[in-house]
Design a protein that fits this description.
The chain is of the alpha+beta class and 175 residues long. Helix content is 23%, strand content 37%. The N and C termini lie far apart (34 Å).
């Protein structure tokens, strides 16, 4: 229950900050920053949907290990994908570890009934939060965008959710 309240508080603060930025002419956030599998990612806000606390899933047999199952999120059945495992740098989590995770649904405009499991939500980021940008690493997946580097040298990989949702790997959940 505390996780749900903390998540509601985060969403409320994020919405308030976005509105204040619009009103004051401050640069508006373009990404939701998340951490999963020990790596930092930027997810485009216009492709991201609602954030949910971990609520458990109904496992689906004969699927990839990164496909955790089906969850009922606000009355909609959504497939739940462990982002770290999908990207090849995560391992299965126990139930206690999952309780600290969040689910990020895709924007309904993308017409993808799925949510991504992320270890931590790190807030919103605007373009001016980064000191420089590099192209996506060579031979990276098509859904990798630029790498943004902040003033402390922390590297943030942009993930294009729309492209991710259309890849053969994402669409092939069968083991």
């Amino acid at each position: 229950m505390a996780n749900r309240e903390a998540l509601r508080d985060l969403q409320s603060r994020l919405a308030g900050r976005l509105q204040a930025a619009r009103n004051e002419g401050i640069s508006v956030a373009a990404w939701l920053a998340v951490q999963t599998g020990g790596r930092d990612y930027l997810l485009p806000l216009n492709q991201a949907g609602e954030i949910f606390p971990w609520a458990g899933v109904q496992p689906v047999p004969y699927t990839q290990t990164w496909f955790l199952g089906i969850a009922n999120l606000r009355g909609a059945l959504m497939g739940v994908v462990d982002l770290a495992q999908l990207l090849g740098h995560g391992s299965a989590r126990n139930e206690q570890e999952l309780m600290d995770c969040s689910l990020l649904a895709f924007n309904p405009a993308l017409e993808v009934n799925a949510a991504l499991l992320a270890d931590r939500l790190l807030g919103l980021r605007a373009a001016d939060a980064f000191s420089r940008t590099e192209p996506a690493p060579e031979r990276s997946p098509s859904f990798f965008g630029a790498v943004h580097i902040d003033a402390s040298g922390r590297r943030w990989q942009e993930l294009k959710l729309q492209h991710l949702s259309q890849t053969a790997k994402f669409l092939s959940i069968r083991a």
